[in-house]
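Entry 14. Two folds queued back to back today. First construct below, sequence then structure tokens.
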Amino acid sequence: MYQYLLLHKPYGVLPQFTDGSPEPRPTLAGYIDVPDIYPVGRLDLDSEGLLFLTDDNWVKHRMLDPEFNHPRTYHVQVEGAITDEALEQLRRGVAVADYISRPLKAKRVNPVYPPRVPPIRFRANIPTSWVQLTMTEGKNRQVRRMTAAVGFPTLRLLRVGIGDLALDGLAAGRYRSLNASEIVQLREGFKRKR
């Protein structure tokens, strides 16, 4: 029987179970004690939020394969009061590094999260704002590169959704198993996309 878990990955935790660096950093092993389960996708060391883990390779493949256009939703705290023009640029796609990002959904939001430890950098004379981005691609540090490209550097990044799965109420460092109806919905959703 396959296992499906959702973890609220805290800031500063590697999205893997081991760290071979000379000064080991916190890993998923400090939060999950379920054997033979692996994260699907990544959240950088300095990103937080929803991480999906499974031992079901069929689901893993479909979540990672760009052909399935599997959406991921992020709440991003940026430096400055984000403008309508910047949001429109993000919606159309932004040139970052050697590619142009796919169009995505972008809107202002006002979420409330506990303060991050360590706190984000604070500048008394520069406001911050939050934007919600829903995208179907996941290149390395893409969200950070995109917000910087439109003039609003990322200060804090939380993934709050993967497809229909949501972070809702899951505290940092905690995980839960998907219930039977969530598993059926997840697998059936991929069958319909074929």
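Second construct, same run, same settings:
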Amino acid sequence: MKTSDFYYDLPQELIAQTPLERRDGSRLLTMNRTTGQLSHEHFYNICSYLNPGDTLVLNDSRVLPARLLGHRVPTGGAVELLLLKDCGNGLWECLARPGRKLKPGSEVSFGNDELTAVIEEDLLEGKKLVRFHYEGIFLEVLERLGKMPLPPYIKEELQDGERYQTVYSRVTGSAAAPTAGLHFTTDLLEQIKASGVNLAYVTLHVGLGTFRPVSAEDISDHQMHSEFCMMSQETADLLNRTRENGKRIICVGTTSCRTIESLADEQGHFQEKSAWTNIFIYPGYRFKAMDALITNFHLPESTLIMLVSAFAGRENIMRAYQTAVEMKYRFFSFGDAMFLY
């Protein structure tokens, strides 16, 4: 299949720039993937699509406030670093601006010298290896000095950083939010549990590669980035029990989907496990574990629209997206949601 098979025309004004005041107030486009039938709902009514004994799989990864604004020492020139990967002992892979001026040996300061850094090495694809120096706990320093690394299509400044975190986030490590989960409130999750639906948690730390466009003409030539994911024994047991009882495993977001499809064995059975995954799900893929999916609307020609097309059928998805555009749904990270079942 060609990358261009997954293109759709999206007016810029439909790209949501800010979250709605009410998390669960977003619209919900539902699709029966067998019949292709569409219906229009609000997210706060998601419970009516869930059945007792079903299990919702949620990615509890928390976004690292990984964008650091500082200055070069001693010139004072402005610097921006984006943390990508923790290499241990204060060493991080970063994207840096201005990259040309930050040569190995360059020194950088953030927050009145509360955090300093030295560029140690130039890496591939414009990345830098950076060593940080600080007192105390690095994550606490980041919480004070760092900013949310919002996707490039969001131009507005986010007023409340917690609106780019799910209410159940707890394991810090993502460069971007698992955005399908942004629609849930604590009250809605309690309502879901009270209705007899199970909640299971996995962790996948979302990398910036999630925004990398597919440049290959043939999608099978695309190389996926690797992301770290893990599943506890408690979650594995719950998913196995759900499957044995003939109930549905419903993933909240493509990251939860990629996690369980990476960690399931060929029979769709689970055990406690962690791994780096570069799974690429596109039409023709045979799903081993997922029965339904809650997801946001994804970028044209992205690996994520390919994933949802693999699950619900490309023609179904392209028609649903066209309907969403015509009905002026909000798109991408702070946008509306879909339920594919």
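Quick look at the second one. The domain at 67-145 is CATH 2.40.10.240 (Thrombin, subunit H). The mean pLDDT is 96.
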